[in-house]
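Quick one, T. Sequence first:
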Amino acid sequence: MIDLFNVENKIVLITGSTRGLGLSLAKGFSDAGATVIINGRKQSEVDSVVKHIQDHGGQAYGAAFDVTKAEDIEESIQNIEKEVGPISVLINNAGIHRRNPLEELSLEDWQTVLDVNLTSAFNVSKLVFPYMKKREKGKIINITSLNAEKARPNIANYSAAKGGLKMLTKSMATEWGPYNIQTNAIGPGYFKTDMTEKLVNDHNFNNWVKSEVPLQRWGVPEELIGTAIYLASDASNYVNGHTVYVDGGWQASL
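C-alpha cells:
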C-alpha cells in the first residue's frame, strides 16, 4: 500500500523553487527519491540550490527561466524533456506580493502580481501539457492560497490572482482529465517564509494569526511536503480539480 505514495524516479518541475515554499518542496521531493528541476530567474540562485541538493545525495537539475516569458519557458521545457527526461509532475509555485490598499494599488503592481501568480501557471502548464498528453499521464499541482477564499486589506491583487488560480485548476482538471492528467491545488494558510517575515515580526499581526488558527501557530514550509507528495503520487489518481487547504484549521472555524 505504501507504494501508492512512491515518487521515486518521477521528474518534478517546481517553479519558483530557489527559496520559500518552493525550496522546501524541492528538498522534500528530493528526499523522497524524485528528481527535481529547480527554477528561478537568476542562474546563480538556481545553481546554488541544485548544488545543495546534489551535495546531500539528491538528483537535481536547473532550469533558469522567467515564468512570465512564454518563449523562455518553451525552450526550457524542451531541454528538460530532451536532456533530463519526461516531466512527471509540474508544481506551479512561483509567486510574489505587492501590498497596497486597493485605492492606491497601481496598475503595474496589479498586473505584475497577476502575471507571476496566475498567468505563469497558464504559461508553464500549457507548454508542459503536450508532453503529458502524449504519454497520457501527468500531475499538475498549483500552489494557491488561503487568500483565494478569504480577503484581507492590502492584498487585492494577490487574492484575485490566487482566486483565479483556484478556478484555473478546476478548468485544467476538466479539460485535461480525459488525458489522464490530474490537476489539483494546495492552498497554504499563513506559513513562515522569507515573503512573510515582516508579518511574522509584526507583533500585532503575529498575535492575530495565532488567534485565528485553531492550531495557534504559523505553519512551517516542511508541512506542505506530505500533501504535495500525495497529490504527485498514484495515491491521488482519482483526485482531480480540488484545492487542499493546509491552513491549520483556519477555514474550519468562525
